Amino acid sequence: SSRIVYTAPAKPKRPRARFRFPRRSLRTAVIVILMVIVLSAMWYVLRIPYFQVNIVEVHGAHRISIDVVQAAVRETLAGSKWLIVPRRNFFFVSGSKIADHLRSEFLQASDISVAKDFPHTVTVSLRERTLWGVYCVSAGDTASPCFYVDETGVAFQEFSTFQGWLLPVIYGSRMANIGSNTVDPAI
């Protein structure tokens, strides 16, 4: 008939101790990896050559050398911001900062404007000062400094020797500051 076999009771199995990665550490590792991926992608996108300003157009320069203006613009675009963003990146180029730099560099220009043309061009438009006359400091000697003056009375360039009378000559007692009104516009 039937047989029943009795065996000794089996020892209960102990669950193996599995190594569990702490959730906080796992979350931190995922966040760090995502940040590295995002920063790497940003670094790559910011350095794409297509979005780097590499064409500088200059309009309106006659006496000022176009090559010198282009070199001054490229000087402002050299280097990096925050050690990661190249200054030549189209989206981070500041037309007003370039214009301010050019105004301080080229006092012979009365008006300078800078425009960005997508994706990699900067256009500089300038208007040169019109020579109206000469302002000389009357110090009693012939070696007193003289300055070229435009039609608004702004001194824009110094020179040391002056001969001839083709231009109006104004003698004054105070030293002229280049880039500022030296002669009253009413004169």
Main beta-sheet strand count, sense and barrel state:
4 strands, mixed
Helix and strand sequence: HEHEEHEEEEEE
- Unreliable runs: none
Number of strands: 9
Present the secondary structure layout.
Elements: H1 23-46, E1 55-59, H2 66-76, E2 80-81, E3 85-86, H3 95-105, E4 109-117, E5 121-128, E6 131-137, E7 146-150, E8 155-159, E9 169-172
Task: Give a quick summary of the entry.
With 187 residues, the protein is α/β, with parallel strands linked by helices. Helix content is 25%, strand content 25%.
Description:
This protein is an alpha/beta fold and 187 residues long. The chain contains 3 helices and 9 strands. The strands form 3 sheets. It has a 4-stranded mixed beta sheet, with no helix packed on it. It has a 3-stranded mixed beta sheet with strand order 1-5-4. A two-stranded antiparallel sheet has the order 2-3. It starts with 22 loop residues before the first helix and ends in a 15-residue tail after the last strand. The model has no long low-confidence stretch (mean pLDDT 85).
Key attributes of the depicted protein:
25% helix, rod-shaped, 25% strand, 3-stranded mixed beta sheet, 187 residues, single chain, 4-stranded mixed beta sheet, alpha/beta
